[in-house]
# Entry
Amino acid sequence: MDLQTIALHEGYTKDSQGTMVVPIYQTTAYEFRDVQHAANLFSLKELGNIYTRLNNPTTDVFEKRFAALEGGAAALATSSGMSAIFFAIANAAESGDNIVCAKQLYGGSLTLNTHTLKRFGIEARYFDVHDMASLEALIDEKTKVIFFESLTNPSIDVADIEAITAIANRHGILTVVDNTVATPILCRPFKHGADITVHSASKYTTGQGLAIGGILVEREDLVSKLRTNPRYEHFNKPDASYHGLVYVDTNLPPYTLRARLSLARDLGAVLSPFNSWLFIQGMETLFLRMQEHSKNALALAEFLESHPKVKKVNYPGLKSNANYKNTQKYFEGGLCSGLLSFEVASLEEATKIVNATKLYSLVVNIGDSKSIITHPASTTHQQLSDEELAACGVPAGLIRISCGLESASDLIADMKQALEA
Ligand code: PLP
# Structure
């Protein structure tokens, strides 16, 4: 099926009422038929609903639909994009291990990886997303994950997914790709060798800034990479916390299964059924919205590129952009989302422009139908030192725009008056 069709139908069989809209199963728990039924569910002899911290019928539709859009085998919805990232990493790495991450990451991911994971004994090592030699040099026998974003926020680089996954595969290491900005509509990392994707569903998935949520997706046949792989013994040995279950022997997608049965069970950062329902509604228009966001962003980027006050425009859809080749290779129709950034001379100049716009809301979010303007150095990246800011490509005069669905001419006119105010 095509993406437009999957986004509307996958994962939902109409109930006895013929309900067109996926129902919200707002419940904590589910009644078992009898003791044997309960025992079968807990031992996975039968699959079914147990408790909403483990699974929920509304969330199940969201997970199945999103996994199908991404071209994956299974998904686990989480309470936020951050928890999806944490689950994706913590499912592979433990104390004493390391992960190798792109420097060009969302600020929250940098903080998680550098500071919080360190407290759990996991070391984050950073490579430049355009420098494959710097990646390979960081790998050792304790490396459990290579983590990067397909389209980076806020530096707006496009990763060479096949080059990174080729290195990972040579070493038998899992790749985790944050595909939030691209969405499965524009980029499908599994086609290019990635193993796991994570998303902040809080962005384009709702499309209207309605809810916080996340999702982790596993590719088809990940089991063959995990089976007998010495880096991932915990998928191959009995799990003492789950009746000695050996994940690679279950005939179920093992990565999401373990994330669900151990991480979601023990940490509880799962999505509420209501938020799953909101994401399902958003997904119905995701295909159309991503075309429009991308067209608006390209028009605004072209305008900015021609403006004398603008030092640099970062939008990979521009022919002049260093990422253009990767965009053509990895992004459907060369469309590359509503996210762009541009640089002006100084912090003061950036502050003046951000304050002068009328149509763009000053908000730390992206992927809303309403256009958003952000100054990363004073907000999302505030916790980073000057050196860390420079390393992840966020100079003080950088302004980030998430182009919404207003008309391109209105967006350009408002930006022009702000630049010239
Ligand atoms: N990944 C990317 C690329 C993001 O931009 C964000 C949030 O801005 C996140 C992850 C975190 O998502 P959430 O806010 O849903 O936790």
